[in-house]
Amino acid sequence: MRKVILLLLVLLTAGNVVYSQNEDIIPIIVKEQTTQGTRGNHAPAKVQVECFYYPFTNSLELSFLSNLGTVTVSLENLNTGEMKEYVGTSSTGVMMIPVVPNSAYRMNIVTESGRDYIAQFFAGENDSDS
Questions:
Q1: What DSSP string describes 74-88?
Q2: 87 to each of 65, 67, 73, 83, how far by Cα in Å?
Q3: Of 4, 52, 60, 119, which has the fewest CB atoms closer than 10 Å, so is most exposed?
Q4: Residues 19-74: tens digit of each pLDDT
Q5: pTM for the whole structure
Q6: pLDDT digit string (tens) for 113-126?
């Protein structure tokens, strides 16, 4: 009986640790930039790039849902005007990019095939609790 209770306590504690780590991950909305005037009779394709901000490490994680080839990421700090460019391959599945905390950013992602994705976000503490 003690082993069962101890096992339950360990599982509950481990679940709380994993949950608290996920609270610090902030998803960033990435949209595909389409050209004006193109019309189609189909639903838009699923965006192949997901982005998450980690406040603890002040970094972005770009997750690629498929192999998009070589990817160029332009990151503009809207507070300072500083522009940085990162080039990588999406075949690894993930790309990590450092950011400055308490800054607004505009991000442009261009794939090898010419697809263009954009995102705007604030890298700072999540103020939803205050």
A1: EEEETTT--EEEEEE
A2: 17, 14, 6, 14
A3: 4
A4: 445 568 999 999 998 766 556 556 666 788 999 999 999 999 999 998 999 999 99
A5: 0.71
A6: 899 999 999 998 65
Three-class DSSP category at 23: helix
* d(C-alpha 109, C-alpha 43), whole Å: 22
Contact of 117 with 68, CB cutoff 8 Å: no
Ramachandran category for residue 8: left, alpha or beta (phi over 0 → left; psi -120 to 50 → alpha)? alpha
Tokens of 111: 């794939």
Burial per residue of 62-72, b for 16 or more beta-carbon CB atoms within 10 angstroms, e otherwise: bebeeebeebe
Q: 18: which 2 tokens?
A: 């994993």
Joined together, the tokens standing for residue 66 give: 């498929």
Structure-block tokens of residue 118: 């954009």
